[in-house]
Amino acid sequence: MSSRTAARPTRRSGDATTHAQRAATVAAFVGHGLLFASWTAHIPQVKDRLGLTDGTLGLALLGAPIGSVVAMLVVARILPRLGSKRMVQISLLGYSLAGPLVGLAGSLAALSVALFAWGAFQGTLDVSMNTQAVTVERTAARPLMSGFHACWSIGAFAGAGIGALGVAAGLSLTPQLLLLAVPVLLIAGGLTTRMLPDPASIEPDPASSKLASTGGSAGRQVRARRTAARLSRPVLVLGAIAFASMLCEGASADWASVYLRGSIHVSAGEAGLGYTTFALMMVLVRLSGNWLLTAFPRRRLLPALAIMATAGFTAGLLGGSPASVLAGFGCLGIGLALVIPTVNSAAGRLPGLSPGAAIAMVSAWGWAGFVFGPPIIGELASATSLTAALCILPVLTACIAYGTRRQILTD
Fold it and tell me: Within 10 A of 50 (CB to CB), how many other CB atoms are there?
């Protein structure tokens, strides 16, 4: 088959070619979300067991996003050479094995280190599976990214529910993550053998790569061009939108159960419903995301959803009841559902960068939101209250509404 034919498959051949690959990519997204979200309901128990305050908990939670950002900066260089298929396999194994270490941590320092290691594999898997998703989407010649992220949300919803049930049943974090790691490795790990190789046309030019490794003026020029591409306006705009969105997502994951338990005074089992509601709303919107993005212009749809998140979450905080807070987190999930899939899909198509490098750079900005979010909210909560600290979220969703209205993405 010629490269021209491979690049422009018919609907029939594209679907036949990518059926197994779509299943493999779906499994990776589900596994990532399942393991990540299953620990969120355990955060209050980890906090109490280690005797942490809101502020020290925020510092401990820095470990995972810092590990993710550091890993993404490294992945931006090595993923184009190794390919997303191999990187998914490596990071999926590390992600499944590193998670249980979080539950074994016996001090603030140990918890931070364990979260850093888990976050490094988490970030590597995030970039790798999104790069594979772009490859599958291109091969299928039709929108698929929102569906893949819906599968992540399904995994996150299931994980959050499993975590809440585990807490209610008295199951600690480490055995829970070990039990979940087994099907993730067997199913998702086995399916990775069917993943597609990244198209040769989007890999770095071999001659340029050779020049970049030299110390001469030509090598410096190649490296300078690559750096400029990674810091170009499109990358920075997409990165800023991802930063705001991921900060809100991270705050929901890290602080929803703490807020419901400590400020709204619900039971330990009910506290896990905050992030569960957030994840459920994300699932519903992302499942219809491909249709929504086809039916409505991006510059109208994404701002409208972000405005809904701003109004709904603000009302939830002001209401102060369990029902209003849960509704607020649900509106937040609706407003953010399509932001990251749209940003990643756009990053994977930026000219002058391989999809892996572009997605890694934009994702690093997004995960930086996880780095700054927990300590900001934790320190604000210590100085004022957790309710006041969470007011930063509707401010950010308002910024997302403005940014997606003015964004560089084309419909």
Answer: 16
Q: Which amino acid is at 181?
A: A
For residue range 362-377, what is the model confidence (pLDDT) as tens digits?
Answer: 888 887 887 777 678 8
Instruction: Identify the helix (H) or strand (E) that includes residue 228.
Output: helix 217-230
Q: Report yes or no: 353 and 229 within 8 Å, Cβ to Cβ.
A: yes
pLDDT for res 228: 45
Q: Is 51 helix (H, G, I), strand (E, B) or coil?
A: coil
pLDDT at 201: 41
Cβ–Cβ under 8 Å, residues 242 and 369: yes
Residue with tokens 């705001």: 244
Which has more pLDDT, 210 or 407? 407
d(CA 411, CA 407): 11
- Among candidate residues 26, 285, 67, 61, the one with its CA nearest the CA of residue 152: 26
pTM passes above 0.90? no
Residue 119 phi/psi, 5° resolution? -65, -35
Cβ atoms within 10 Å, residue 306: 31
53 is written with which tokens?
């305050």
Identify the band that residue 6 occupies on the pLDDT scale cut at 50, 70 and 90. Answer: very low
The token pair at 107 is 């001090």
Q: For the chain, what's the residue count?
A: 411
Enter the tokens of residue 51.
């005797």
* Mean pLDDT of the chain, nearest integer: 83
Q: How many CB atoms lie within 10 A of CB 217?
A: 9
d(CA 269, CA 261): 9
Tokens 């829970």 found at: 176
In whole angstroms, give the CA distance from residue 371 to residue 212.
31
Using CA atoms, how far apart are residues 194 and 211, in angstroms rounded to an integer? 33
Q: At what angle do helices 217-230 and 355-383 cross, to 10 degrees?
A: 50
Q: Is 211 a residue whose pLDDT tops 50?
A: no
Residue 72 in contact with residue 364, Cβ under 8 Å? yes
Element (H, E) at 147: helix 145-169
Domain spans of the chain?
A: 20-405
Region of poorest pLDDT, from 69-78, 88-97, 215-224, 310-319: 215-224
**Residue 391 scores a pLDDT above 90:** yes
Distances (CA, A) of 260 to 8, 29, 242, 275: 50, 28, 26, 10
Residues 109, 82 contacting (CB under 8 angstroms): no
The CATH architecture annotation of domain 20-405 reads: Up-down Bundle (1.20)
| Pick from 21-30, 88-97, 153-162, 197-206: least confident | 197-206
